[in-house]
Each structure stands twice: as structure tokens, then as C-alpha cells.
Amino acid sequence: MSSAGISSSADVVVIGGGLIGTSISWRLQQADINVVVVVGERSAAASGVAAGMLAPITETTFTEQRLLQLNLASLSRYADFVAELELASDLPTGLRRTPNLSVAYDADDAARLDTFADFLARAGHPGEQLTSTECRRHEPLLAPTIRSGLLVAGDWSCDNRLLWQALIEAAHRTGVQDRFGFVHRVTSANGRVTGVELADGQTINAGSVVVANGAWARQIGGLPDLPVRPVKGQIIRLDPGRMPAPSLTIRAYSRGSEIYLVPREGGREVVLGATVEELGFDHRVTAGAVYELLRDGRTVLPMITEYALAETSVGWRPGTPDNAPILGRCDLDGLVLATGHYRNGVLLTPVTADVISHLIITGELDSIATPFTLDRFALTGERTR
Ligand SMILES: Cc1cc2nc3c(=O)[nH]c(=O)nc-3n(C[C@H](O)[C@H](O)[C@H](O)COP(=O)(O)OP(=O)(O)OC[C@H]3O[C@@H](n4cnc5c(N)ncnc54)[C@H](O)[C@@H]3O)c2cc1C
Questions:
Q1: Which of 3, 5, 114, 269 sits a CA distance of 20 to 30 A from 134?
Q2: Is the pTM of this model over 0.85?
Q3: Backbone phi, psi, residue 146, to 5°
Q4: Beta-sheet strand order (sheet of 177-179)
Q5: pLDDT by residue (tens digit) across 128-141?
Q6: Average pLDDT, the chain
């Protein structure tokens, strides 16, 4: 039987059930706003693939000063966010407040790390520069051939899969309804959102619609042109079993390549990532990527060759022209954007949930988010395809 023509309603429809959509829906429903989340395909979400680094400082680049402020604001909310979430869901999130250690393998890598350390110090976020011996004192499993390191105390990590499960549970307990399927288009009349139409023809009427479907934002009809593209990442999960696991998150420059190793609490998993590939929605795990990640990982932490290869996976970061998210309203009344979180969506979950729910409840966009509205791209012409 066709389901076309079947209609329901909610105060707010959230498109996408990843970390961003789920956290927004939880916050809204806490304020007694009736939310339906059209979840799409959770197994395809970047939220379940990510490494879980909460590392605004270690992850920053020379051109992302504005984004750094937003990332730091989100990290400053993390401890309270996680405490509230764990209480609301009765589930753990795997938050780890251990420092991040960046290391360099050869002379060129060391020069690169020095330049980065210098940049961080000038930006007011100095790390502690370490010799090879000092690096190994902090993380004894590192290869003795490591040349130098940079310890950043304020950068943390979490288990993004646990975090996401906890958010789904908390959202359900608060009353959020999941709708399985995909939004085909956002409906509107007279410049105002009226709801969404699903791929199976059903409709949901709503006064507000939140676009939170990550890398797929551009695939929905009825939206303004959103400069969001999928950036493929291949990543590996290792199971140390009875072997010792690192205790710190390690980011490494290794012969010009960059990798990271993110351990989970109790050493039950080490995540090794990741490639950054402009290949659209290519879903293949390639032999070359797995080889290079393992090769570079082993150079830095030889012990990984003893770990079990538990999982290889692919995810798509929602990339934007300036690597920062798109938050807030646009020309269509009632449409709210929360996409484009690129490589920081786990980190940016608390601040995004707060800012977007506050916007829907009060009509006000928090000043922390005003640099990240869609209209910033109108100035640079980035929205022109
Ligand atoms: C390899 C890799 C490593 C990463 N590491 C980190 C990290 O260490 N730290 C960090 O902060 N970030 C990291 N990220 C980035 C982070 O994963 C993303 O920014 C974040 O998960 C985006 O969350 P989201 O909810 O916006 O999108 P997603 O998690 O991708 O969820 C979007 C959901 O929307 C659904 N959907 C799509 N189309 C529709 C539709 N039409 N209707 C309804 N639903 C739809 C999809 O099926 C999907 O389930 C990493 C990403 C990758 C790929």
C-alpha cells in the first residue's frame, strides 16, 4: 500500500539523526517543544565513524581563528553537557580529559611541529614542547625514533559512539519521536516553511525545520543553495586485547603524512585515522589507505602490529568552503541550518545544540554563532555553483 498522502505534524522537524540532529532534538524537547527527527540512515552517519577527538587546539590550522573560538566555546561546555547527558540517559560517554600529544618523526616533521608550536604560542595557546625522551616518559609505547613532541593539556576525547547512543536514549526519554526514512524536500508557502515531504510521499507539517543531515544537506529539495560537500575519511579501529594500549591521544607527523591514534577508556579500542579525500560519496575502503594508515601508525607506535584489526570504515565529513559550520536562519522563514561541521562535529555538538535550540525557542542567535550564518558566503561568492 502506498503511504503517499499520509500526513502528521510536529512543532519542529529535525532532518538527520546524527550527533547534531539528535542533540538539538533533545534540547528542544527538554523545553517541551514537540520534535520529530527524520533519521535517515544512522549506519551511514559520520557521527558513528569519527574518532572522537575534542581537540580545538591540536586540530587548529593557521587560517581558522574564528572557528577556533567556537571550538573552544564548545569544549568549555563539554564537562557539564556530558554530566547532564549521562544522568539523563544512564549511559556512559567515554569522556577522557587526558592531554593530546603531537609528535614528529623525522627532521622535516620536527620543523613542521616547531612552526605549529610557535603559531599556537603566538595565538595564546602554548603547548609544552618535549624532547624524544620526554615524549616517551608521557607515553612509553612511542617509538624511540620519535624526535620531538608538543603536549596540549586542554584537548580531550570522548567515545563518539557512546556519546551518540546516550543522546539517542536521552532524546527518546524526553519524548523525541524518530521517523525512519529520508526527507525528500522541505515544503513552504509565502516564504515560510510548512513542513517536509518524505521520500515515501508522507508529509509532516511543522512551523520550523532544522537541516542537520550533515554531508547530504545539498540533496534536499526546497532549500537555499548550501555550500556543503562530502569529504571522505577512511579510518581504522584496533582492538589491543591483552596488549598495552596508549593512554594519550597521539597526533603524529610522520614523513610528511599526518595521522592520529585515539585510545578509549580502559584500552579496549584504539582509533587510527584518517584520510581526507575529495571523492564525493565514494564508499570504498581502499587497500592503499589501510596500508598507509597502518604503516604510519606503526612507525609512531610499533605496538599496534600486535593489535587485532577490528574495523575499517568510511565516513563523510560535511565540508564547507571555510571548514566552519553553517548555523542559524536563512531567507526562508522557519528554516534553521545546523550543518557543515566538517572535522569538528563531535566537538561542536554541545554548542550547536545550545545555540540552535535557543534560536528556535527565543528567536535570538547567540553572538558566538553569528559569524557562522549562511550569508557569510554571499560576500565571497562561495554559494555560486
Ligand atoms: C573519519 C572521520 C573522523 C572524524 N573525527 C572527528 C573527531 O575526532 N572529532 C570531531 O569533532 N569530529 C570528527 N569528525 C567529524 C564528525 O564526524 C562530523 O562533523 C559529525 O559527525 C557531523 O554530524 P552530523 O550529525 O551533522 O552528520 P552525520 O553524523 O553524518 O549524520 C547525518 C545523518 O543524516 C542522515 N540523512 C541524510 N540525508 C537525509 C535526508 N534526506 N533525510 C533524513 N536524514 C538524512 C544521514 O543518513 C545521517 O545519518 C570525523 C569525521 C570523519 C568522517
A1: 269
A2: yes
A3: -60, 135
A4: 177-179, 35-38, 12-15, 208-211, 335-339, 326-329
A5: 999 999 999 999 99
A6: 95
Q: Could you tell me the sign of the dihedral formed by the alpha carbons of 356, 357, 363, 367, in that order?
A: negative
Q: How many CA atoms lie within 13 A of 232 on its CB side?
A: 14
For a mutational test of ligand 1's pocket, the pick from 43, 203, 216, i.e. the residue with the most ligand atoms closer than 8 A to its C-beta, is 216
Distance from Cα 152 to the centre of ligand 1, integer Å: 26
- Residue 120: CB atoms within 10 Å: 18
Distance in angstroms (rounded) separating the CA atoms of residues 262 and 250:
7
Contact residues of ligand 1, CB 6 A cut-off? 15-21, 38, 40-42, 44-47, 49-53, 182-183, 212-216, 219-220, 233, 235, 273-274, 315, 317-318, 339, 341-347
For residue 42, the ligand 1 atom closest to its alpha carbon is: 49
pLDDT reported for residue 116:
95
Domains of the chain, by residue range, sit at 7-48+162-227+321-380, 100-153+230-319
C-alpha cell of residue 43 = 549506519
Q: Is cis: bond before 199, omega within 30 of 0?
A: no
Q: What is the pLDDT of residue 91?
A: 98
- Alpha-carbon span 263 to 158, nearest angstrom: 9
Q: Which of 19, 209, 229, 313 to mutate to test the pocket of ligand 1 (most atoms within 8 A of CB)?
A: 19
Grid cell for residue 159: 567515545
Query: Span 60-85, mean pLDDT?
Result: 94
pLDDT in tens, 303-331: 999 999 999 999 999 999 999 999 999 99
C-alpha 100 – ligand 1 centre gap (Å): 23
CA-closest candidate to residue 33, choices 12, 7, 9, 8 = 12
CA 203 / ligand 1 centre spacing (Å): 24
For 117-130, the pLDDT digits (tens) are 999 999 999 999 99
**Ligand 1 atom with the shortest distance to the CA of 22:** 25
Class of domain 100-153+230-319: alpha beta
May I ask the CATH architecture of the domain 7-48+162-227+321-380? Answer: 3-Layer(bba) Sandwich (3.50)
State the distance from the centre of ligand 1 to the C-alpha of 88, rounded, in angstroms: 23
